[in-house]
Amino acid sequence: MDTEESMSILSLSRFTKWTLDGTQFLLRSYLRVRLQKIEKYLFYILKTDEYLNRFSKQDQMFARRCTDDLGRHLDDTVLARLPDNYQSTLKQSITSEEDDMGTQFFSKSFLHLF
């Protein structure tokens, strides 16, 4: 094997390694962003069966585990110290605002202040 051929093989192996590293990076980035979006819209996803069924079984299991972990954390740190009618993780989530108060409450009360 001459030096030119060995350099060619070495270059090809480096190129292959870089290609694999790049592919792994893209895959990890995709999965990281996917899990971050599930965490961000966790309550909305679990609240609506239509959206929950769009996810894989592993993603559904991840979402449920996140909800359980978040619920335990909130129970241990904050919710236990609140009045009984506020000790629900769902009530404290942002998505519950649409269930708690209708839009007429905001439009009639707060618009008169401005």
User: Which value, in Å, is the CA radius of gyration?
Assistant: 25 Å
Structural class: mainly alpha
Cα distance spanning the termini:
83 Å
Question: How many DSSP E strands?
Answer: 0
Could you give the topology of this structure?
Elements: H1 3-40, H2 42-47, H3 49-52, H4 57-77, H5 89-92, H6 97-100, H7 103-110
Structure description:
By secondary structure, this protein is mainly alpha-helical. It has two domains: 37 residues; 74 residues, no CATH class. It is 75% helix and 0% strand. It contains seven helices and no strands. The longest helix is centred in the first third of the chain and has 38 residues. It is elongated and about 80 Å long. The C terminus is likely disordered.
Short description:
The protein has two domains: 1-37; 41-114, no CATH class. The protein has seven helices and no strands. The chain has helices at 3-40, 42-47, 49-52, 57-77, 89-92, 97-100, 103-110.
Output the keywords.
2 domains, 7 helices, mainly alpha, disordered C terminus, 114 residues, elongated
